[in-house]
Amino acid sequence: MPIAVQDELNVYESAEARFETAAAKLGLEQGLYYYMKYPEREVTVYIPVSLDTGGIAVFTGYRVVHSTVRGPSKGGIRFAPNVSLDEVRALAAWMTWKCAVVNIPFGGAKGGVICDPAKLSKSELERVTRRYTASLSDFLGPERDIPAPDIGTNDQIMAWVMDTYSMHVRQATTAVVTGKPLDLGGSLGRKEATGRGLMICCNKAVAKLGMKREGCRVIIQGFGNVGSEASLLMHQAGYKIVAAADVNGGLYNERGIDAAKLYDWVHGQQRSLPEFPGGEKLTAREILFRPCDILVPAATENQITSENAHRVDCRILCEGANGPTTAYADPIIEKKGIFVIPDILGNAGGVTVSYLEWVQDRQGFFWREREVNEHLEEVMEHSFDEVVRYAETHRVGNRIAAYIVAIDRVARALKLRGFYA
Ligand code: NAD
Asked: Ligand 1, residues 88, 97, 187, 225: which to mutate, most atoms within 8 A of Cβ?
């Protein structure tokens, strides 16, 4: 059990615990350990925004750059009421390790604003986004720090980020942000990329464990960008989606749910997920404990904890969300013999296609969707193989193997660069 964790539900402590375990196994020298442990920069901004009702509200925003050792920092912006500096710190570090696991030339960062986007009008949301971007404009840039969407943000918000930054630097700069609309330098395949990356990892795991894809029972928690795209793609590929959930609740049907119809129900018709006909209603938490072959937590952090990990009943745990499993839950999951596809590998399809979007913006030449998907598949398959090979050769779990592959890559870049004094 990791000693470093005082508060199991503090995601920063959970992230640190894994880093420390991996760094110790790697024999990372002390100077490098401290350099990689702490972020390079943490910025807090207070954003005054005029409300539609006439008053002014001041929102708190953060941007943490964990590392620029391997390239400009990359990481999403989260708009949610429970955003905290510790959460943004953890997410920024995970971005460093994620980019390094899949070997794309970025460091890691993350941003967040404490707000509830559901309670803001579209114009208030635009003003929050623009003022947040303006406050950070000295730090952002295609060669510096490149945001993307995360929980509570979307392609429209990325378009406002791009426009605000471009107005400040007096030139149109599409490559300053990824996850943009297709009409504004976005990439084909980006919307589906994280879900597709998850499916590619599941395909590899299923083959490795000698299982059959057809009829393989899948449970997906979260039906936003990651969860709904993963459900749709996996349904189309022959997997059987037996349960799905969003913040409103869950739905279970052991005979399988038509994920294409559910996708249309939620995103097309804007109806509530648990009201979808043909399934047993459950809470979003309960679906995690129904028996299945593949469990995909793709909603939010701290879903699988030391309190409930013993109830997880799957062969493969494929993490779509960042940090869905706490560090205390790791040994329980490992003891059950569950094959873990850790978040920094499983959900790396999103940042991989963000990288491809950035490349296309910078070269001013855009690829067909097939080409984007081929690149993604190659990156994900290769990274999966590297992590699993390391885990098997060094007799560590897949999660620690992924951290070690990543930390080692950052350490090598750091040694080559040396320390500028
Ligand atoms: P999103 O805002 O599009 O969707 C989040 C989904 O989770 C929604 O369906 C929401 O209803 C549901 N949800 C929220 N709280 C819940 C709860 N307590 N129980 C059940 N469902 C709940 O966000 P997203 O972009 O899909 O991101 C989901 C997760 O994936 C986050 O952890 C995010 O950091 C991670 N992630 C996203 C991307 C990406 O490309 N969008 C890439 C890598 C990782």
From this structure: 225
Which atom of ligand 1 is the closest one to the Cα of 350? 40
Ligand 1 atom 37, closest CA = 150
* Among 74, 98, 110, 191, the one annotated catalytic: 110
Write the burial class of residue 144 (CB in 10 Å: 0-12 exposed, 13-18 middle, 19+ buried): middle
* Distance from C-alpha of 319 to C-alpha of 312, rounded to nearest angstrom: 13
Supply the residue whose CA is at minimum distance from atom 5 of ligand 1.
224
Q: What is the mean pLDDT of residues 319-331?
A: 97
Regarding the beta carbon of 96 and ligand 1, being less than 6 Å apart is answered: no
Sign of the alpha-carbon dihedral angle for 154, 157, 161, 167: positive
- pLDDT value of residue 4: 66
Pocket test for ligand 1, best of 79, 89, 113, 150 (most atoms within 8 A of CB): 150
Confidence of residue 278 (pLDDT cuts 50, 70, 90): confident
Superfamily for the 40-178 domain: Leucine Dehydrogenase, chain A, domain 1 (3.40.50.10860)
- Which residue's alpha carbon is at the smallest distance from atom 41 of ligand 1? 150
Torsion of CA 397, 398, 403, 408, to 10 degrees: 90
For the sheet with 316-318, list strands across it.
Answer: 280-282, 249-252, 240-246, 217-221, 294-297, 316-318, 339-341
Is the whole model's pTM more than 0.85, yes or no?
A: yes
Class of domain 193-346: alpha beta
The whole-chain average pLDDT of the chain stands at 96
Beta-carbon count within 10 A of 147 CB: 29
Residue range(s) occupied by CATH 3.40.50.10860 in the chain = 40-178
Distance 290 CA to ligand 1 centre (A): 20
